[in-house]
Write a structure and sequence with these properties.
CATH topology of the largest domain in chain A: Alpha-Beta Plaits
Number of strands of chain A: 8
Number of strands of chain B: 22
Largest sheet of chain B: 10 strands, mixed
Helix content of chain B: 10-25%
Strand content of chain A: 25-35%
Strand content of chain B: 25-35%
CATH class of the largest domain in chain A: Alpha Beta
Number of domains of chain B: 2
Distance between the termini of chain A: 19 Å
CATH superfamily of the largest domain in chain A: ACT domain
Order of helices and strands of chain A: EHEEHEEEEHE
Radius of gyration of chain B: 22 Å
Oligomer: heterodimer
Structural class of chain A: alpha+beta
Structural class of chain B: alpha+beta
Shape of chain B: globular
Order of helices and strands of chain B: HEHHEEEEEHEEEEEEEHEEEEEHEEHEEH
């Protein structure tokens, strides 16, 4: 199974290789989708964990015991669909396949499952309709 | 020459509610089975439309006279500088003029807000004269407060446009959107077979005085657009393969809807404005029947490298390819994306069709044709 989380690192543990530890000890693949880590400040990682359910659960327990905040990534990209004019500009920079144009209706289709929270659409949208919420 | 119809005959059919009005996409589909001769007999008017970013746009506004009066010199609306070098209380809000304090906000936003009924802050300064003694005004205005508020866009609805790509090793930010490095994506901007000036490529029915759908209301073509160019290469279907003709348009912004006039900000480029335009084309004869039947696979556009100042051509693609989601360039599959809304362009073409069918929109014959021969000159270095 695949599950996405926002990991929040307090400043004092950003130097520990938690992600590697998880991957090594629990046989869980960790795909880092987005990272904002600076020494001395709180760090944030958006990760996708891939493995069997039991191992993902253990990984999370381990991360929490190490002092990391783990919140499931539910609301990734916020999108004001009502105001969208379906120009398509966001689809030109979306490589995950989350934002595509329907080839018949030419409406914008947003598939949150595909989103890797890269943030390119946030800047590309001419109407500024996207925002990213890292909280779960 | 087969059957011909006059503007008057078509208008009479419209008045009797007997006219057959189709969108340009519908007639393009029809042309797979019917010949131009059959289409002239069957179809009276074809509606075309586009909804895309058109930087060369703006609005005239007359604020009304203050008491005591002011001859406004430096004027801003919501901190966006507007041009006031004409008389006392006339001004022109350029769509791309940027706020003094926020580069993502500009004239386009002021125009959209006024259209949607919002109040904007007017700040005006003057030196003061005997007949215009006031030196400073700070107040708010709405579209209902001002005398005139009309869009007058010098260059809209480009007849075809480049497909933009970037061969450099880094991302570039353009009016064609964000262009990713090493041919990472390709963007295009016209509405293809629905695009107004591609359906009447030699401007037989579109000229000065043509009534159009403009921003949700009825407006007019006021002149040929700036950079109007009739000398661009045309393909076998008679379609210019790069940016050629343009139109200048005028319309009452007080009657417009913000659904069809939308402010925009292109990352690290600046402010621009989405403009909705629809143009009816009367099917007067077989030649026009042929031109309104143009299909996406016949409309070719030139791929240009925006990473290099001269924007060299990397070849030609057609709109069927562009709409498929990827094109092949230098042996690589390159993702394509539009920057204008076909969805909203279709909505405009349908709306115009309903207006005409219901007898609410009168067809017009151009008062004057556009120049038959025109080229674009560069600014010389001296």
């Amino acid at each position: 199974m695949n599950k996405r989380y926002v990991f929040t690192f307090p400043p004092d543990i950003v130097n520990r290789p938690i992600v590697s530890e998880i991957a090594k000890h629990f046989d869980v693949m960790v795909n880092i989708l987005n990272a904002d880590v600076t020494s001395g400040r709180e760090g944030k990682l958006v990760v996708e964990l891939e493995g069997i359910e039991e191992n993902i659960r253990k990984s999370l327990e381990y991360a929490v015991s190490a002092g990391i905040g783990c919140v499931p990534l539910l609301k990734q990209l916020q999108f004001d669909q009502e105001a969208c004019v379906a120009c398509g500009v966001c689809t030109s920079v979306c490589f995950s396949g989350a934002l595509t144009m329907d080839s018949e209706s030419w409406e914008l289709i947003y598939d949150p499952e595909q989103c890797v929270v890269c943030g390119r659409c946030v800047k590309a949208c001419p109407l500024r309709l996207f925002s990213i919420t890292m909280e779960g | 020459m087969g059957l011909t119809k006059s503007y008057e005959e078509i208008q009479e059919k419209i008045d009797r509610r007997e006219a057959v009005v189709l969108t340009a996409e519908e007639v393009s589909r029809m042309s797979r089975e019917l010949s131009p001769a059959e289409i002239v007999r069957k179809v009276d008017v074809v509606t075309t439309a586009t909804f895309g970013p058109m930087c060369s746009s703006g609005a005239f506004i007359n604020f009304g006279h203050y008491d005591p009066p002011i001859r406004m010199e430096e004027v801003s609306l919501n901190d966006v500088p507007v041009y006031a070098g004409l008389a006392a209380v006339d001004a022109y809000i350029g769509a791309t003029s940027e706020s003094k304090y926020n580069e993502t906000y500009g004239g386009a936003h002021v125009i959209e807000e006024l259209i949607s009924g919002k109040a904007v802050h007017l700040s005006a300064r003057a030196k003061g004269t005997d007949c215009y003694p006031t030196k400073e005004v700070d107040t708010t205005i709405t579209k209902d407060d001002v005398n005139e508020f009309y869009l007058f866009n010098p260059r809209n609805a480009y007849q075809n446009y480049a497909v933009a790509v970037n061969t450099l090793g880094h991302t570039i930010y353009t009016y064609m959107g964000t262009l990713l490095p090493r041919l990472g994506n390709a963007t295009y901007s016209t509405s293809g077979e629905l695009s107004p000036l591609l359906n009447d490529p030699s401007f037989r029915t579109i000229g000065i005085g043509t009534r159009i759908f403009f921003g949700g209301t009825q407006g007019f073509v006021s002149w040929h657009g700036t950079q109007f160019n009739t000398s661009k290469e045309k393909n076998e279907a008679g379609v210019p393969v790069s940016n050629a003709g343009t139109i200048a348009v005028i319309g009452d912004a007080k009657m417009m809807q913000s659904r069809y006039i939308k402010a925009a900000y292109m990352e690290r480029y600046g402010v621009t404005i989405f403009v909705g335009i629809g143009i009816p084309i009367p099917v007067l004869d077989e030649d026009l029947a042929r031109s309104v039947s143009v299909r996406n696979d016949q409309i070719e556009a030139t791929v240009q490298d925006y990473g290099i100042p001269e924007k060299p051509s990397l070849g030609r693609v057609n709109y069927s390819m562009l709409r498929s989601g990827s094109i092949e360039l230098q042996g690589k599959q390159v993702r394509t994306a539009p920057i204008s809304s076909l969805l909203r362009a279709r909505e405009i073409a349908e709306t115009l069709k309903q207006w005409i069918t219901a007898g609410e929109f009168q067809l017009t014959r151009p008062v004057e044709q556009f120049p038959a021969h025109s080229t674009t000159k560069p600014l010389k270095r001296r």
